[in-house]
Design goal:
heterodimer, A: 211 residues, mainly alpha, two-stranded antiparallel ribbon, B: mainly alpha, 19 helices, elongated
Chain lengths: 211, 327
């Protein structure tokens, strides 16, 4: 039985809001810089560079807060992914999204007090937050402080490698954002998850063991 | 017998000729004091500067009591101000030049001295490792200057009596460094009187040969000549592998696209300079050491757009299914 519960504390909502704003600004300015064209400009080039740099620095601090908080508070438990049976759980969740939800099947891993994310969400969040975002931040700082980047690696310019990594991770995070927003519409109602991240109250199942 | 007599006469004349610089402006004591702050050999050096800092010098034939006023070749002129503010400002002239130069007129043995090259003093020395003289030497040896111009040497570009650090000098702005660097090239390539001393080629009109370049003035003021005329590398801050003009960069995309050649050495310097100029935080955040289009990568774009389309395709199918099944 689903019930409305205070599921997202204010601190997490504020962090999520800052993070979301930063990511959106970084994507918009990043695209402006990457596909720059004097005739068709999303954001004027010099402004795009400035906003991108400033937002990147803010995101770095935001990520640092996330990283430290996840070590020092209980929030990390939501990201734990026991490797045993992971394939089966991912398959089950994928089948639910692909077929099950259309047949009216019950969610295999519903949100509970103990579980904020289903196995697929966990996998994506862990990849994004512990691989994608750190890489984009490190490579971003590498481009801000280019002399800190190695001259060349196996004959290829260190700056070029850093740059390609930064852009590739930027693309990857952008794709994640699209999927993240879309999957957020698959909630109790289509807008329920969006409301939850604003007011903190989300629909959760009363009893379920987290995995 | 006639030849021996001639030699004896020449030696006699030479010994009787004394030197006087055509100098009304020998540095006064106060000016010299200024130079003593950076150099311990000012007095010794004066014996050179009294001629070489002037436009004319006088040869006095004490035997016949005659004077010959000669112009000093511009290449041999060195101003004290330039000398005492350059990279080797603490040197005595005779640190680099043969002691034979103490004689006047200078004997042939001195005139034929093989001048030191940069690598002779700076090569394989830990103190100068960051200048990468060994890499620079290798690049230079492959350059069009070394291979095609007779008697070319480091000194043709880096005047040993006035050379300043700019690119590697934290005090110089990027614009100053660019202007100084480009002046070195232009001192020959836009001055035919100097250019023709080294080559038989016809005069070059730099503006004409670069008339294909859009925003020519902006490029000349913002980019070093060597950015397009050398084979750049990430490891050497100042590239020395000057290439023939037909190999020069002419495609906009070389700079304004993926793997921009400017993302290498100059990019690093410009970012650093921006931090120095605006402070660490402002410099890091607002640095504009970024060339338009410098990180565009066709393969990455293709993969990115493909993945985006696939994602959107998958989401669209899912949306349609949700509409059909009312979920």
């Amino acid at each position: 039985m689903a019930k409305l519960s205070y599921h997202y504390p204010l601190s997490i909502r504020i962090w999520h809001g800052i993070n979301a704003l930063c990511i959106l600004l970084l994507i918009a300015t990043g695209i402006s810089m990457y596909y720059v064209d004097p005739n068709r400009t999303l954001i004027e080039f010099s402004w795009a560079v400035k906003i991108h740099n400033i937002t990147g620095v803010i995101l770095s601090f935001s990520y640092l807060i996330f990283f430290i908080s996840n070590i020092t508070t209980g929030n990390r438990k939501y990201y734990k992914m026991p490797l045993k049976g992971i394939g089966e759980r991912l398959l089950k969740q994928s089948q639910y999204y692909a077929f099950g939800m259309f047949k009216g099947e019950k969610k295999p891993y519903p949100i509970t007090e103990q579980r904020k994310f289903n196995p697929l969400q966990k996998l994506f969040y862990v990849i994004i937050m512990y691989i994608g975002v750190p890489l984009v931040i490190i490579s971003g700082w590498g481009l801000l402080l280019p002399e800190s980047v190695i001259g060349a690696f196996m004959g290829v310019s260190g700056i070029l490698i850093t740059d390609v990594l930064h852009v590739a991770m930027g693309f990857f995070i952008s794709l994640f954002l699209v999927i993240h927003i879309y999957v957020s519409t698959i909630g109790h109602t289509r807008s329920a998850n969006f409301k939850s991240i604003v007011n903190g109250y989300g629909w959760i199942e009363e009893s379920e063991n987290a995995k | 017998m006639k030849k021996i007599a001639s030699i004896i006469l020449s030696l006699f004349l030479a010994s009787s000729i004394s030197l006087a610089a055509q100098s009304d402006s020998l540095e006064n004591a106060a000016d010299l004091e200024k130079y003593r702050e950076v150099n311990d050999f000012v007095d010794e050096n004066e014996s050179c500067f009294k001629c070489h800092a002037e436009t004319k010098y006088v040869l006095v034939d004490e035997f016949f009591g005659t004077e010959f006023v000669n112009s000093l070749c511009p290449d041999k002129m060195v101003t004290r101000d330039e000398y005492y503010s350059m990279v080797h400002k603490s040197f005595a002239c005779l640190d680099c030049h043969a002691y034979d130069y103490e004689e006047f007129p200078h004997p042939l043995s001195a005139r034929l001295e093989e001048p030191y090259q940069c690598i002779d003093c700076h090569g394989y020395d830990e103190n100068y490792a960051h200048f990468q003289f060994e890499d620079i030497e290798m690049e230079y040896m492959e350059s069009v200057h070394a291979e095609q111009v007779e008697n070319f040497s480091c000194w043709k570009c880096h005047d040993p009596h006035s050379y300043q650090l700019t690119v590697r000098d934290d005090g110089a702005t990027i614009k100053e460094a660019i202007a100084y660097n480009n002046d070195i090239c232009l001192s020959c390539h836009s001055d035919f009187s100097r250019f023709e001393l080294l080559t038989d080629r016809e005069e070059i009109d730099i503006l004409d040969t670069h008339d294909w370049l859009p925003n020519q003035a902006a490029h000349f003021g913002s980019v070093r000549c060597i950015e397009c005329h050398t084979s750049l590398s990430d490891s050497t801050l100042v590239a020395h592998h000057v290439q023939p003009s037909e190999l020069a960069v002419k495609k906009c995309s070389e700079c304004h696209s993926k793997n921009s050649i400017l993302m290498a050495s100059l990019y690093k310097h410009e970012a650093k300079e921006s931090r120095r100029k605006y402070g660490f935080i402002n410099g890091v955040i607002l640095n504009e050491a970024y060339v338009i289009g410098a990180n565009r990568n066709t393969t990455l774009s293709f993969i990115g757009i493909l993945l985006f389309l696939l994602t959107m395709g998958g989401i669209s199918i899912h949306i349609v299914a949700r509409i059909i099944f009312k979920k």
